[in-house]
Design goal:
Distance between the termini: 35 Å
Strand order of the largest sheet: 1-2
Radius of gyration: 15 Å
Largest sheet: 2 strands, antiparallel
Number of helices: 2
Number of strands: 2
């Protein structure tokens, strides 16, 4: 559902190789306005509220581009 809401560019999930139950999800947006529109979408709001029923220790951090390397770098 979250992927069908406009504004989300990339979504990835990670967990430790040791198999911990902890999970990290990263989401990428074109800019802060795209994030704000996506986050305030009614369907996303419903998912966010419902997730608190099943998950604990949820935290959110907003990160911006690095002043050292704002563009995506890939090896050639």
């Amino acid at each position: 559902m979250m992927l069908s809401i406009a504004g989300l560019v990339d979504l990835r999930g990670y967990r430790t190789i040791a198999g911990s139950s902890q999970l990290v999800i990263t989401q990428e947006f074109a800019d802060l306005a795209a994030y704000a529109a996506w986050r305030s979408h009614p369907e996303n709001e419903r998912i966010w509220v419902e997730s608190h029923t099943y998950l604990e220790n949820i935290s959110v951090e907003l990160w911006g581009p690095s002043p050292v390397s704002a563009a995506l770098l890939r090896p050639e």
